[in-house]
Design a protein that fits this description.
Layout lengths: L5 H24 L4 H10 L19 H12 L6 H19 L1 H20 L4 H15 L13 H4 L2 H23 L4 H6 L1 H13 L4
Helix pairs in contact: 1-3, 1-4, 1-8, 1-10, 2-8, 3-10, 4-8, 5-6, 6-8
């Protein structure tokens, strides 16, 4: 993938918003969009993607994030400030990760090792989430200020939910790195909002109802 299009950047950005939305939903409600969560989690194991969209299993895998992105831009009065805060934090952590070659390599090695374990052993979703959450704590939490997740204490104190939140955040950071690699810039979020929103809607409109 040597050349990236505006659509590629929007898909990657949708991945950031999807990670933020999934983390928020689990923290608030204890549940989230299962298909979107699976697509975001699986994106962590696509090491040689054919395209940006293929990382999420196609545009359908990122539709939840694209819809969240579109709503955040087009409906300021309904904007979820919590999701916006998480998106900013994910992009910041993605930047810190990209500046730390040792951390990037360590994260890559950990994910490859987990992918190999998944091939040889039947790891259930809970075990996979726990191991990804551990990778997040070891590789991401040490980079800078931790993302403070707000929500219902009952859900936040549940170990399974805590693990799923970290998986969603890790996937969001992976998408933020991809967005940067595809030429994403912070100023685009301010000066190209309409173009980003239009591209996001066009991508979602290609999906079956």
């Amino acid at each position: 993938m040597s050349r990236y299009s505006d659509a590629d950047r929007v898909v990657a950005l949708g991945g950031v918003f999807q990670g933020a939305r999934l983390a928020r939903d689990v923290a608030r409600n204890g549940v989230c969009d299962a298909a979107a969560f699976d697509a975001s989690r699986q994106s962590l194991f696509d090491f040689e993607p054919d395209s940006v969209a293929s990382i999420f299993g196609g545009v359908a895998g990122i539709a939840h994030g694209l819809r969240t992105l579109t709503q955040q831009i087009e409906r300021p009065s309904q904007r979820d400030l919590e999701v916006a805060r998480y998106v900013i934090a994910l992009i910041h952590l993605g930047d810190l990760l990209m500046r730390d070659a040792e951390a990037m390599q360590g994260l890559h090695d950990d994910l490859i090792a987990l992918a190999r374990r998944q091939q040889h052993f039947e790891l259930g979703d809970t075990t996979s989430n726990e191991q990804l959450a551990e990778i997040y704590q070891q590789r991401i939490s040490v980079l800078g200020p931790r993302i403070m997740i707000g929500g219902e204490p009952l859900h936040l104190q549940n170990p399974d939910n805590a693990a799923r939140i970290r998986v969603a955040l890790l996937a969001g950071i992976r998408a933020a790195v991809l967005w940067r690699q595809a030429g994403g810039k912070k100023w685009q979020l301010l000066l190209r909002r309409r173009a980003i929103s239009r591209s996001s809607r066009e991508l979602v409109d290609t999906l079956p109802p």
